[in-house]
Design brief:
heterodimer; A: 115 residues; mainly alpha; 3-stranded antiparallel β-sheet; 6 helices; 9% strand; globular; B: 172 residues; alpha/beta; Glutaredoxin; 5 helices; 21% strand
Chain lengths: 115, 172
């Protein structure tokens, strides 16, 4: 009985954590997706080690400081979802379009994952 | 047995939630600023512009058929629309699905009465509204100003939520 209560609590906690998780957008490719700014090794391999994020940013007309900031927020020890979100919110609609299309041109989709 | 099912449910929720329910604590827009204009195709082929809805309170909801929390909140959004439509509430649910086929199927299955718009390229969702969450909803007042944002799924027809929305509807 006690065990069931614990498991029930785990379910509630899982829902609560999921519903409250603060994050920024997900970029997906080949069925795998990660939050930008994610500190996981898998995200680092996908965006950074592959050179993809560098190519994506090079394909935009974003100011170099913005590119550097986005690169640092994803591929340096200072990785930060919050910082990515701030940059995303601070750029203009035209710059967001530029960024979205650059992801698309490199085989990524934003906030849309195949199930 | 029950414990195993519950354990598996917890695992599944943990596995799916971070991917399909993308949350953020804010958007690019401060509350009280004008909502960005948009012009999107509805499922019935008509073009809908935000400017066409001036004078109505608009709930602009971004969603996708592949986002479980998004589809889960649609029935309560439908009930809210049914109860407040006559008071001047307009609900525009903007799908970011790549194709309208699954959207049509879901709309039929859930018998959704509000306006469904397609934004497959995410020009409105990503570029204009900078919405990092899915689902994410903007409450736009009758003069076109963003009054509230809601990140993640909501119980739209709850009394608390109705109170939040009704305050912006025209007084009768």
């Amino acid at each position: 009985m006690k065990k069931e209560w614990l498991v029930g609590f785990a379910v509630i906690l899982a829902v609560a954590l999921g519903a409250c998780a603060s994050s920024t957008f997900v970029a997906s490719k080949d069925g795998k997706g990660y939050y930008l700014g994610n500190s996981s090794n898998a995200a680092y391999l996908m965006f950074c080690e592959s050179g993809d994020l560098q190519k994506i940013l090079a394909g935009t007309q974003l100011p170099s400081e913005t590119k550097d900031e986005l690169y640092r927020s994803n591929c340096s020890p200072e990785r930060s979802k919050e910082r990515v979100k701030q940059v995303y919110a601070s750029i203009t609609p035209a710059q967001r379009k530029d960024l979205r299309l650059a992801f698309k041109n490199n085989g990524y989709d934003i906030n849309y994952l195949p199930c | 047995m029950r414990a195993t099912i519950l354990f598996l449910s917890a695992g599944l929720i943990l596995f799916f939630t971070p991917i399909h329910s993308v949350h953020a604590s804010d958007s690019a827009f401060a509350l009280g600023t004008p909502a960005p204009a948009f012009e999107l195709k509805a499922l019935d082929g008509k073009t809908v512009k935000l400017s066409d809805l001036k004078g109505k309170v608009v709930l602009l909801n971004f969603w996708s058929t592949r986002c479980a929390p998004c589809t889960a909140e649609l029935p309560s959004l439908n009930r809210l629309y049914a109860s407040l439509r006559k008071n001047g509430l307009e609900v525009c649910a903007v799908s970011i699905d790549a194709s309208d086929k699954p959207v049509r199927e879901l709309v039929q299955e859930k018998d959704l009465a509000f306006t469904i718009l397609m934004d497959s390229e995410k020009e409105t969702y990503f570029d204009s509204y900078a919405a990092p969450s899915l689902p994410m909803t903007f409450l736009i007042d009758a003069s076109g100003v963003i009054r509230q944002t809601f990140s993640g799924p909501q119980e739209w027809d709850s009394s608390t939520m109705k109170e939040k929305i009704v305050q912006y509807l025209p007084k009768r």
